[in-house]
UniProtKB/TrEMBL annotation:
It comes from SAR86 cluster bacterium. This is Outer membrane protein assembly factor BamE. PROSITE patterns: PROKAR_LIPOPROTEIN. Residues 29-97 form the Outer membrane protein assembly factor BamE domain. Belongs to the BamE family. The gene is bamE. The lineage of its organism: Bacteria, Pseudomonadati, Pseudomonadota, Gammaproteobacteria, SAR86 cluster. The keyword DNA damage does not apply. Part of the outer membrane protein assembly complex, which is involved in assembly and insertion of beta-barrel proteins into the outer membrane. It holds the Pfam family BamE. It is found in: Cell outer membrane. Residues 1-22 form the signal peptide. Keywords: Cell outer membrane, Lipoprotein, Membrane, Palmitate, Signal.
Length: 105
């Protein structure tokens, strides 16, 4: 009985000394690096852009010539890193404009 009581008290004390809630680090999207963005040039075709940056994170159904790249690292409710890039192609599917919304390295 004494050992059982000591066990119960020990378990209670251990449960009171928790280290906190574990928060998972979540990574989403395509990693964007400044050196890769610098390789982009107006006039490149879509295949060349994919070769440099990879597939876009998402494409807008209503604007098929606009590609969006997004990268985010979060832990709990905290955003640790975030990058956003918009690539616009002309009617001939050639790179027309690069809009860097936010780029974290």
């Amino acid at each position: 009985m004494k050992k059982f009581l000591i066990l119960i008290i020990s378990l209670f004390l251990i449960s009171c000394s928790s280290t906190g809630i574990y928060k998972v680090t979540v990574t989403q999207g395509t990693v964007l690096k400044q050196e890769d963005v610098n390789k982009l040039e107006v006039g490149m075709n879509k295949d060349q852009v994919i070769f440099i940056l990879g597939n876009p994170t998402f494409e807008n159904f209503f604007e098929p010539n606009v590609w969006n790249y997004f990268y985010q690292v979060t832990r709990g409710n905290d955003t640790l890193s975030e990058s956003k890039l918009k690539i616009i192609f002309d009617a001939d599917n050639l790179l027309e404009e690069i809009i860097v919304i936010k780029l974290d390295d």
